[in-house]
């Protein structure tokens, strides 16, 4: 599906402007709401402009991975709900949904947001952390919205207890043990322009996409999409822009979880 007002968007970019009077390196309004799923261990809803993503975190007792018998597990999944966009369909996960979940998962793992060592219970028994991502409304830049929501939900999640073979999810529970934090910045190449936080119309006409995930000090993961390219200078400039913008994103996450 092509973008609405494609010629108008390209004409504006040619003049150095964007829709809704945004600068090239400016996010739309971001809102974070926590504890939006009452029975989840942790949850958060993130709005970036008209894009809305919900993340729920749940922990369950299970067997460890064969090659990591003393570690808990992390499982990230994503659903592109048909109510979010006319382009989404019911059925098995689409390639877009699989890539979406993997990009978010890669950032969480690389930044070691979840302390997997702390999820060990006893021999052949560990906690598995499930991060479930639901797109409630699509208008571009799902990656950053989902990473923000996932990080917020994990940092604010409560840790169930395992006693005498029973899982206890109520009462005085501490927080899930975490080791880090991660945010991401996604950029789109539209013509000769590089745009932060592309909306749905901009994504439909972009030739390339780049998502950079980082913690406070280090780039943790990168994912490029589509056939277009970024020059070396563009890449280094975007890394710098990511570290600059991520300060604002981390502050929003910390405020949301009360740190």
Sequence-ordered SSE layout with sheet pairings:
Elements: H1 6-14, E1 30-34, E2 42-48, E3 51-62, E4 73-80, H2 95-110, E5 120-122, E6 125-137, H3 142-155, E7 161-163, E8 166-168, E9 183-190, E10 193-196, H4 200-205, E11 208-214, E12 219-225, H5 232-257
Parallel strand pairs: 4-6
Antiparallel strand pairs: 1-2, 2-3, 3-6, 5-6, 7-8, 9-10, 9-11, 11-12
How would you sum up this structure, described in words?
There is one protein chain. The chain has 259 residues and is of the alpha+beta class. The chain has one domain (19-257): GHMP Kinase, N-terminal domain (Ribosomal Protein S5, domain 2), CATH 3.30.230. Helix content is 27%, strand content 31%. The protein has five helices and twelve strands. It has helices at residues 6-14, 95-110, 142-155, 200-205, 232-257, and strands at residues 30-34, 42-48, 51-62, 73-80, 120-122, 125-137, 161-163, 166-168, 183-190, 193-196, 208-214, 219-225. Strands 1, 2, 3, 4, 5 and 6 form a six-stranded mixed sheet that branches. A four-stranded antiparallel sheet has the order 10-9-11-12. A two-stranded antiparallel sheet has the order 7-8. β5 and β6 form a beta hairpin. α2 (95-110) packs across α3. The protein starts with 5 loop residues before the first helix and ends with a helix.
